[in-house]
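Could you help me review a protein record that somebody else here produced? What it holds is a sequence and that sequence's fold in token form. I need someone to confirm that the token line plausibly describes how this chain folds. Take the sequence as given and treat only the tokens as open to question. This is what I was given:
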Amino acid sequence: MAKITEKFLLARASPKNKTLEQIQTLNLSLLALKCKDLPVKLLSRLQSLESWDLSGNRLEELPQGLALPSLRSLDLSDNEMEDVTTLDSLTGLEELKLDGNIYITVNDEYKLMVLLPKLKMYNDKYIGSRADHIRHTSSSILHNRVVAVWATKFGVLETNSQEKVEDMERDFVATAQCSIQFGPNSTRDYIRWRVGILAKEYLRSLLQRTEEGDKSQEPIITKENNVINSPVKRKQSLLHQDLQLTPRKRARGDACSSPSKDSPGALHLTRQRAGPAGAVRASPRKAASAQLAASPAVKTPRRILVEQPPPKEDSGRPKRRATGDRGLPTSTATPVDREGSPRKRSCIRPRPPPREEGERVQLKPLHVLQCHSKQNSPEDFSTALWACAFQPLPHGGGDTSCFTAGGRLVATCGGDSICVIDCETGLVMKKYKVPGEEFFTLGWSTVQMSRDNGAPARPCAVLAAGGKRGLVTLTHPQSNVAYGEFRASRKALSTLRFSPRQGNLLFTGAYDNKITLWDIGGVDSQYKYKASQLMVLECSSTPLHLCLPPASPDTALLAATDSGLHCFNTQLSPGSGKRAAEMEITFPIYKQEDKDHSYRTIDGLGFLTNDIVASKCHLQPSIYLWSLGQTQGQAKRRGSVAAVLLAELQWATTSVPYLSLSTCPEEGYLVCGDDRGRLWSYSLHNLLLENNHQRRELVPPTEVLEWPAPLMRNSSPVEVPSINSVAMGQGLSYLVALSDKNMVVVWKREDSS
């Protein structure tokens, strides 16, 4: 890559000129340039530049402050452009090319039509008429709706202090963005962006008129007027305006419920033998750059209920049923309040009675939810769900006020939404949508929330999620607040993991083959936070799963990647910077590789004890159990070391990748789904007691739970899905499985009621 200098620019100009100020055509294509390589001060001397070719570079945005008043034609094709708003200073542009930029969406195209008032040619197509409609007609309609939001939901202009004005602006912008719906769903991001601009412009015009004492035809009501025509209605704002998330505070009793019993789109579950396996899918999540159509907020998530026998009586008292199900037959449930949340007296579920070593856990299907549907469509069986995690309970019996429905809440992600589900009632308690996003990973943690007036900080259970956009979204589900997001990578995020010992430390893995350690800190009473980067770990391929050894979570990390399993030193020290893997852990199945079969993709990883690790390789019909301590003891220097195997568990034969496993250390249980909707479960108490002895024979599963086989009314059975992810709650009270066909299956332990 050549350095951009005055001499270099003169050499790339056509025709040749003696000074930069005379250059009219400039070709800087195919130079692998990034934004930081463009010197603003030097380029701003190109006052006569009319045509600029920047195609075939690695630009994600243009530098701020670039002033090129004569520029009429710009070629940015085949770059990595993401932020088109950085082109706002090029107001004279008439022709623009952005072909080959995979992150550019229709929302970005609409933004360009507003930002560039003279733009007529886009990707060699005339857009003059459409651009004029966007700039004038549509903007006028949106302006009128912004004015209506002000008149109906605000109306009082507080000018007492600059701080109040800023607070009002934040409230007004957030309310307008949430209230105004216009155009197709695919342009939702643009509408939100445009409404935000119009709302700020309108409020500033009101302030200007108030300061000038100009009485306009549009009503301006201030506290000094002593006349208020309508009651003031202030909607609570989202605390982070850049996030396009759709839950607002629900009224009490407005918990999501399932469709009525007679709904034609309702689904039933019957105990059937699973059908034949479907076609092998392409590698999922590799399509992170594909554009997704945004869907509106789902008002009523679809629920599929397993047919259950009548509830048994216990000591002569019938068990209660969950509320809010509109008469649908459900399994027994703990009492719930009007929001669907469990009452405080049952916050933490008692642990189930101990079982004999090796005894299988009795699990029964309880609910199947279709809560990630695009446009709330009951026909959506294509949205793939990727990750789920139970909200952890505090250690040491600490304050549990932030841990509602203790042990029963599970978070799921897939498509453009995140759901928080109460496993007992089957209610979707919270739902967050980010149009244009595709979530691949999530995780819970506990951070400290500081309080005013010197009150002691309290624990705050937060949920982080990431996906295609490379952003980490931070939410506080208990308060129904999405309080922030930060960019963790320019590429899609594949996995994330919080430190179990320090809840503010977050590892993120991305498709740029890097794992980054972040300190997200705590939050204050206004949900202000600060995320800072601490360390970067460099991988040879995409990280898929991250595990912190229970015995040393502050100093080591295991990373399962597309090219093997690697161990990193994560101990923080001054100038940590970038680090490479200390060693690679290899497995016997690698010896069977040939030109048609590679077993290096580690798509399942988890700890069963402080030392015993479970892992599986793509295409491997088994799961390895091995000792981390003994394996590390064999490593004499950096490089590869063979895993010290303790046992090999029989598993399904499949070519479908990314079917992850889950472990429950306190119960000695391991579960992994397959491509036929089945859950292979292993009770490993006896085996774990023999961790110093190797078992040569293949260990069969304790039980294989068949797919519950849901049926659409008046339709054929739902195609058997692949189980992408599994999670087990504390004490294995619940088991949750996510499919690649938009279904969340909740299983309940029968002896846990």
